[in-house]
Amino acid sequence: MSILIIVLVISILCLVILFVRNKLPVRESFFMGSLPSMPSDNSIPSDTTEPTAPAAPSFSLDEYIGPTYNYAKKIKTPKKLKVTDKPTLFALPDDFKAVKHYVETLAKGNPPLGDRFFVKSGKCSKDGSVPECQEEDRWIFVNNVSTGRVPCTDYKSKYKGLIPGMIEDIMYVNPYEIFKAISGTGKGYSTDCYLRTEKVGTKKKNKKITKCSVPTPPPECMPSF
Questions:
Q1: Which residue from 143, 151, 170, 71 is spatially nearest to 113, judged by alpha carbons?
Q2: Each residue of 101-129: pLDDT tens digit?
Q3: Does pTM surpass 0.85?
Q4: Domain total for the chain?
């Protein structure tokens, strides 16, 4: 007997739920239909039109982190270099050409990969900057193209590939100086700007741009603490 009562209660609950669900769209449509119709754009009087707010200044993430540069797309794939796993003597010339291409990309750099750009970082000082840059946006010049210069020496090598470029960049990465620069106390940190003209872009495709920038500090050969 108790089982029949439970089944009966469950059946009643299911019927109630189905009834409520079927009624909800009707109530919603009734509520929406009872709302006053919104006037169209043509029905709004011209004298009540509110003035258009000025457009907000455009924001570009590239100004703060630099443009996107895909190294992988600049390096030819084995398929494009006609590399094959066929065990024939006819495949050897293409295989050797592919090895030569990758060695030149890593060591010699023909042409050197990477790009150069300015990134926005704070404001220029009023006292130490040139008149054209006082309290203007401060820009930092970033050069990701290998120059072939051996760090901490005056020797300039002909090797400008990815590996020499990485070694060259590592000398500029001093964690202690980075933290001091963030706090504004590092000797390489400056807000005294001048009009700096540099070539931005890649080695093959570039143009000259002038920005209110600061000098690039030399690498820390012997980190100071």
A1: 71
A2: 999 899 988 788 999 999 998 899 999 99
A3: no
A4: 1
Domain of residue 99 covers: 73-108
What does the pLDDT look like over 180-218, one tens digit per residue?
666 666 666 789 999 999 999 988 888 999 999 999 877
Quick check: is 123 in a domain? Answer: no
Say which DSSP state 82 is in: T
Q: Where are the beta strands (DSSP E) in 124-164?
A: 137-143
Residues 6+ apart with CB under 8 A from 164: 107, 109, 146, 148, 157
Question: What is the spatial distance between Cα 75 and Cα 101, in angstroms, rounded to a whole number?
Answer: 9
Q: Which residues pair with 146 in a beta bridge?
A: none
Q: Which residues pair with 208 in a beta bridge?
A: 199
Under 8 Å between Cβ of 124 and 219: no
Q: Is residue 79 part of a domain?
A: yes
Decide if 140 is inside a domain: no
Phi, psi of 177, deg, nearest 5: -70, -30
